[in-house]
Design goal:
The protein is an alpha/beta fold. The chain folds into four domains: about 20-60, no CATH class; about 85-265 and about 400-540, Rossmann fold; about 270-395, no CATH class; about 570-670, no CATH class. Helices cover about 30% and strands about 20% of the residues. The chain has 19 helices and 27 strands.
C-alpha cells in the first residue's frame, strides 16, 4: 500500500482580517492592469506610481490636510490584527437561536476588527453618537498600542484593582489629539463594513464638528460628503456657552457612491395638503405646474415654454386653441417675465385631464396646478424634458439640511426613556423618532444597521418600532463598552451597574411594549410582530492559547511550546469555540447552526452544511469519511483531535481531496 503524501491540512488563522493586506490586494486588483510597472515582486512602488502619474512630491514641504500628534500611529493600530473573540452570553440574550439582532459588550475598536471578515461590505447604515469631547465624557485610553489587554485591564477583568476610564479635559494637553486618535481607527475600520450603497450618520456638536468633517473627508472621501444637518433638539438652549445658549447639534452624513436617500416621512402638515380625491378615491394635493427655483426662466428651458388653453365652459384644458373663448395660460414669473413649466408637452398632453387651472384675482392672473398623489402607484412617469426635482407622487420628502420638531427633541427623548423605565431618567438620550427619521432615509427591508457607540441603544429601539410599523425586517448590531454607571445616577441606584446592562434591558422592554400592542384588540390589524430578540456577546481573550510572538528568551518560548500541545483553554465551552471560529471564518454572528451526528461524533453544521466544525478531541477515520460524504465547502477540526497521528491527518486530506474530485468541487480542510 502506498504511503500517503505528507501533506497536512491548512492551519486556521485565529487573527482578524489583515487590513493592510486587503487594501494592497484591492489596489493591485484595480491598478494592476493599467499600471503593471507599479508592482514589483508583489509590492507597491509608490514612488513609481507618482512618476507614472507625472507627480513629483517633495515630502519635506507642507501639505494641505488634517494632521495631529499620533496620526501615523493610528495606522499601526488599524493594522494590528486582533486575536480576541466574541463569546456568546445566552443568559443576557433574548431568543438567541431565532433572532437576527446582535448586542456586543466590549471595546468597539477590537470588536470592529473582529467583524471585518464576517460583515465586510454588508452594513447598509452606520449610526454613531460618539463622545462630543466636552471635557466630561470618557475618552478611550490614550495608548497607541491599544490591545485587548488594555481593554481587559480597564474593565477590571485582568486587574484586581481595576482602572477607571478617564475623561478628556482641556487641561490635560493634546485635547483634540486624544479625541482624533480615538475616532480615526474606528471610523477607518467601520468604512470597510459599509455596502456600496451604504451611509454613515454621525451625531456631533460644535466641539469637534470641524475636525470630524476633515477626518471623514480623508477616510470616506470629500466627494462622498452628503450633508451636515443642523438638528434643533433643545429649544430652551443649553447654558454651556457664555454668550449664546446652544440649541442644536449636527448630523454629519457620508455615503458610498451608490447611496440614494429614500427621503423622510411626510409631516402631518404635509399630509394635510392631500385633501382632494379623484373619482377612484385616491388622495392628492395640488402643486403649481410652473417651474420655481433655479433654471425657471424661458431662456433656461425653452422647450418647457408653451401655452396651455383652458375652456371655462367645458372645464377642460388643451394644447391647441379650440375656440375664441379659450383662455391662454403661459408660465409667467411674478414680474411678468417668461418662465417655464415643470413638464414638457408630451407629459402635459398625457395629463390634460388632471390639470387644474386657477385664477388669482389679486394679481388678475391665471395659473395651472397639477396633481401630486399620495399613493406612489398612482400617476404617470415624468417627461424626460421635465425638471429633475419634479415628482408626480410622494410618500416621503427630500430631507432638508435643518431638522426640527418636538418629537426629535431632547425633552421627547427623556420622556420616551422614562416611559420605558417607570420614571427613571438618564442623561442625554437620543429620541427614537430622530433615529427613525435616519433609518427611513437610509434603510429598508432587511438591511443591517450598526451602532458601535450604542449607549442606551436608541438605535435598536427605533429599528424594532419601525419594523413593526412598516412590517420590515431590518437588523441591528449594537456595540457598547461596559462603562460603569455613575454612582450618583438613577441607573446605578436602580441596579444597572454598567451602561451596557441598561442598554440590553431597554431592548427587552421595547420588545415587550411592541408585543403588548397586539393584545386584545388594541391593534385591529394584528400586525406581525418583528424580531425583538438579540444575541448577546462579550469581548474576551481567545479560547486558544495564542502564541506570544513578543516573548523574549528561549525558556519563555519553550514554555509556550508546552502550552500549545493542548492549546484550548479549559474554561472554554464548545459554543465559545464555535463562535470564535465562525466570526474568524467570515460568518455573521447570527448564522444558523445545527448539531448533527456524524461518525458517532457531534458536528456543528453551519448554513445547511456549507461549513462543518468538529470540536471532538478524538478524530476517527469513520468521522473523516462521514464529513467527506456530506460534501461541505469547508471542514474545521481541532488539531489535538488527531493526537499527533500525522498519518491519520494526511489520510484525511486525501479523503477530502478524493471526494471533492468525485463531486467536481473543492473541500477546504483546516485545523486549529
Amino acid at each position: 500500500m502506498n504511503k500517503p503524501e505528507a501533506i497536512g491540512p491548512e492551519k486556521m488563522d485565529l487573527k482578524s482580517m489583515d487590513i493592510s493586506e486587503a487594501k494592497r490586494d484591492e489596489l493591485k486588483s484595480s491598478l494592476g492592469q493599467a499600471f503593471p510597472e507599479v508592482f514589483a515582486e508583489g509590492l507597491i512602488d509608490f514612488d513609481q506610481l507618482k512618476r507614472v502619474l507625472g507627480e513629483w512630491v517633495d515630502t519635506s514641504k507642507e501639505r494641505y490636510g488634517l494632521n495631529w500628534p499620533g496620526k501615523a500611529e493610528c495606522m499601526k493600530i488599524i493594522q494590528q490584527s486582533s486575536v480576541a473573540t466574541l463569546k456568546p452570553v445566552r443568559g443576557e440574550s433574548l431568543n438567541f437561536d431565532q433572532t437576527e439582532n446582535v448586542f456586543i459588550e466590549g471595546d468597539n475598536l477590537e470588536v470592529l476588527k473582529l467583524l471585518q471578515k464576517a460583515y465586510f461590505g454588508k452594513v447598509k447604515l452606520i449610526y454613531i453618537d460618539p463622545p462630543y469631547n466636552t471635557g466630561n465624557e470618557f475618552i478611550y485610553p490614550d495608548k497607541y498600542a491599544e490591545t485587548l489587554e488594555t481593554y481587559l485591564s480597564y474593565t477590571g477583568q485582568i486587574d484586581a484593582e481595576g482602572r477607571k476610564f478617564s475623561t478628556n479635559t482641556d487641561a490635560s494637553g493634546r485635547y483634540h489629539s486624544r479625541w482624533l486618535n480615538m475616532m480615526y481607527p474606528r471610523l477607518y475600520l467601520a468604512k470597510n463594513l459599509l455596502r456600496e450603497d451604504g451611509a454613515v450618520f454621525i451625531s456631533i456638536d460644535d466641539h469637534e464638528v470641524m475636525n470630524l468633517r476633515s477626518m471623514c473627508d480623508q477616510i470616506f472621501g470629500e466627494e462622498n460628503h452628503v450633508a451636515t444637518i443642523s438638528v434643533l433638539n433643545n429649544l430652551k438652549g443649553r447654558n454651556d456657552k457664555k454668550n449664546v445658549a446652544t440649541c442644536h447639534e449636527y448630523l454629519v452624513v457620508y455615503a458610498n457612491e451608490r447611496f440614494e436617500s429614500l427621503g423622510i416621512p411626510l409631516t402631518h402638515e404635509q399630509l394635510s395638503q392631500y385633501k382632494y380625491k379623484d373619482a377612484s378615491g385616491h388622495a392628492y394635493a395640488l402643486r403649481d405646474l410652473r417651474k420655481r427655483g433655479g433654471a425657471d426662466k424661458r431662456i433656461d428651458r425653452p422647450k418647457l415654454y408653451f401655452p396651455i388653453f383652458f375652456n371655462e365652459a367645458s372645464g377642460r384644458c388643451y394644447l391647441e386653441r379650440n375656440s375664441a373663448d379659450d383662455i391662454e395660460i403661459l408660465p409667467l414669473l411674478g414680474d411678468g417675465a417668461d418662465g417655464c413649466w415643470r413638464w414638457g408637452k408630451d407629459k402635459v398632453r398625457r395629463e390634460l385631464g388632471s390639470l387644474h387651472p386657477k385664477y388669482n384675482r389679486s394679481k388678475d392672473k391665471w395659473g395651472v396646478e397639477h396633481r401630486v398623489y399620495l399613493d406612489p402607484t398612482i400617476g404617470g412617469a415624468d417627461d424626460e424634458e421635465a425638471d429633475d426635482d419634479d415628482v408626480s407622487f410622494e410618500r416621503t420628502s427630500k430631507s432638508k439640511s435643518f431638522w426640527w420638531g418636538a418629537d426629535i427633541s431632547t425633552d421627547h427623548a427623556v420622556r420616551a426613556f422614562k416611559e420605558l423605565f417607570d420614571g427613571m431618567g438618564t442623561d442625554y438620550p437620543k429620541s427614537p423618532k430622530f433615529m427613525k427619521r435616519i433609518l427611513q432615509m437610509a434603510t429598508k427591508d432587511d438591511d443591517i444597521i450598526l451602532d458601535f457607540f450604542a449607549g442606551f441603544s436608541t438605535t435598536a429601539h427605533a429599528v424594532m418600532e419601525l419594523n413593526y410599523e412598516e412590517q420590515s425586517q431590518r437588523r441591528f448590531v449594537m456595540v457598547q463598552l461596559p462603562e460603569t454607571s455613575e454612582s450618583t445616577s438613577e441607573a446605578a441606584h436602580a441596579g444597572y451597574k454598567t451602561i451596557s446592562a441598561l442598554s440590553r434591558e431597554r431592548i427587552r422592554r421595547v420588545g415587550a411594549a411592541i408585543a403588548s400592542r397586539n393584545v386584545d384588540g388594541l391593534n385591529l390589524e394584528q400586525r406581525k410582530l418583528p424580531d425583538t430578540g438579540f444575541r448577546a456577546f462579550s469581548l474576551s481573550t481567545s479560547n486558544f492559547k495564542v502564541w506570544n510572538g513578543n516573548a523574549s528568551g528561549f525558556d519563555d518560548g519553550g514554555s509556550q511550546l508546552e502550552l500549545h500541545i493542548d492549546h484550548l483553554l479549559e474554561e472554554s465551552t464548545a459554543e465559545d469555540v464555535l463562535y470564535e471560529l465562525l466570526v474568524k471564518a467570515g460568518f455573521p454572528l447570527t448564522t444558523q447552526v445545527k448539531v448533527v451526528e456524524m461518525g458517532g461524533k457531534d458536528v456543528f453544521s453551519v448554513e445547511d452544511g456549507t461549513l462543518l466544525i468538529c470540536l471532538d478531541k478524538e478524530i476517527t477515520p469513520e468521522l473523516i469519511d462521514a464529513l467527506a460524504e456530506a460534501n461541505p465547502l469547508q471542514v474545521i477540526c481541532l488539531d489535538e483531535g488527531f493526537k499527533g497521528n500525522d498519518q491519520l491527518k494526511a489520510n484525511a486530506v486525501q479523503t477530502f481531496k478524493a471526494r471533492a474530485q468525485a463531486e467536481e468541487s473543492e473541500i477546504v480542510f483546516k485545523t486549529v
